[in-house]
Design a protein that fits this description.
- The chain has about 375 residues and is α/β, with parallel strands linked by helices.
- The chain has a single domain, classed as Purple Acid Phosphatase, chain A, domain 2, CATH 3.60.21.10.
- It contains 10 helices and 17 strands.
- Strands 1, 2, 5, 6, 13, 14, 15, 16 and 17 form a 9-stranded mixed sheet that branches. A 6-stranded mixed sheet has the order 7-8-9-10-12-11, covered by helices on one side. It has a two-stranded parallel sheet with strand order 3-4.
- A hairpin with a 2-residue loop joins β11 and β12.
- The termini are far apart.
């Protein structure tokens, strides 16, 4: 009996030891019979299989670079970019001399178009609307005062004709010319009141204009050429506009010789002087014909833009005109020298046999002819549309 008991005791001990070897002495096999490593069998605290090794490695070079870029962008100054597109046209006489025959003068076309003041600039309005700021030279008066100054022509229209400019999307007018005082101080003040009533700003003689357009502060002055005093007037205008910290300075000059296609020495000298002293764009008028364009020290001079919407002549011999456009771009306050200009050949009339006082943009052969005419008298730049 003792022998039997001992036998069973030894058998139980042997059985227990054998089971322990199986459990702790060898790695279990997977379903394919290959050994499974610890990462394949172990579970993390949450009971989920740990992610792949690559996901728990230290940051790579790429991720370190990305972090450095983000830090650089955060510390880099912000680039501030501002642009303004200016359109400009020449002499606009919104009126007539009362000696002109009523049947073909400026007001006859208002009656023919049922009192629509929008008629006159209808064919160019979209060009102006597409611009940020459009400037025209207003050569005449809005007044019913009939005491004339002693001169060859005296241009006027009733105050209601101010709507020609308003409906035509003109944003500002220059008044520094030889017809704003055709009816003396009374006519001049009437004109200013008419413009104020339709919120069209103006500048001329000793009155300057500063407008913030698209975040660009534009300073403007307009002068009539009257000899040696011209330079002191320029100096005064520039001193004031610079003191107001204008980003851009535009000068509208009434100068030169009527019906001459080439500018004279005085025009060139004054234009260069203005640019040398801080003017960014020079707009010329008075000759009643197109003159050339000059690029000087990175700035543009339009010596004469000719007539545009011109009631001063019922049938001009030369109807060629233009719209000049320039987009000025500032990056962090610095004006870029990108030559972003556009020259748009035009005619003062939609018909060739008379003046219908409705300027049009030219196309085809006529456009090419006027463009070649402008470039014939131009210098300092090449132009490709």
């Amino acid at each position: 009996m003792k022998k039997l008991t001992a036998f069973f005791f030894l058998f139980i001990v042997f059985f227990i030891n054998g089971f322990s070897v199986t459990a702790y002495g060898a790695a279990p096999e997977n379903k394919t019979g290959s050994a499974v490593n610890a990462s394949q069998t172990a579970k993390n605290i949450s009971g989920q299989t740990p992610a792949k090794d690559s996901a728990v490695q230290s940051p790579t070079k790429d991720s370190a670079h990305a972090n450095a870029v983000k830090e650089t962008e955060k510390n880099s100054p912000k680039v501030v970019r501002r642009s303004v597109k200016i359109s400009a046209v020449g002499d606009c006489t919104i009126g007539w001399d009362d000696r002109y025959a009523p049947g073909n003068r400026f007001d006859a076309y208002l009656y023919a178009n049922h009192g629509d003041y929008g008629y006159y600039l209808a064919k160019v309005r979209d060009v102006f609307r597409d611009s940020d700021f459009t400037i025209a030279n207003l050569e005449g008066t809005f007044t019913s005062y009939n005491v004339k100054m002693e001169k060859t022509f005296n241009f006027s229209a009733p105050e209601e004709y101010k709507n020609v400019l308003k409906l035509g999307c003109v944003d500002a007018v220059s008044l520094g010319n030889n017809h704003t005082y055709d009816f003396g101080e009374t006519g001049y003040q009437d004109t200013l009141r008419a413009l104020d009533s339709v919120e069209i700003p103006y500048f001329g003689h000793d009155q300057y204009l500063i407008k913030d357009v698209c975040g660009v502060k534009i300073g403007m002055f307009s002068l009539l050429d009257y000899g040696c005093q011209y330079y002191s007037a320029i100096d005064n205008a520039l001193a004031y506009l610079k003191s107001q910290h204008c980003d851009l300075i535009v000068a509208s000059m009434h100068w030169g010789t009527e019906y001459e296609y080439a500018q004279n020495y005085a025009q060139t000298s004054m234009a260069h002087y203005m640019i040398d002293n801080g003017v960014d764009l020079v707009l010329g008028s008075h000759p009643h014909v197109l003159q050339g364009i000059e690029k000087y020290r990175g700035r543009y001079i339009l010596y004469s833009m000719g007539n545009f919407c011109f009631g001063g002549n019922t049938d001009p011999a030369d109807k060629d005109s233009m719209i000049f456009q320039q987009t000025f771009t500032f990056v962090n306050g610095e004006l870029q020298q990108d030559d972003n200009i556009k020259i748009i050949p035009a005619s003062v009339s939609g018909v060739s046999w008379c003046n219908n006082y409705q300027p049009v943009v030219l196309e085809g052969a006529e456009k090419q002819r006027v463009m070649e005419k402008i470039m014939r008298y131009s210098s300092g730049f090449e132009y490709r549309e």
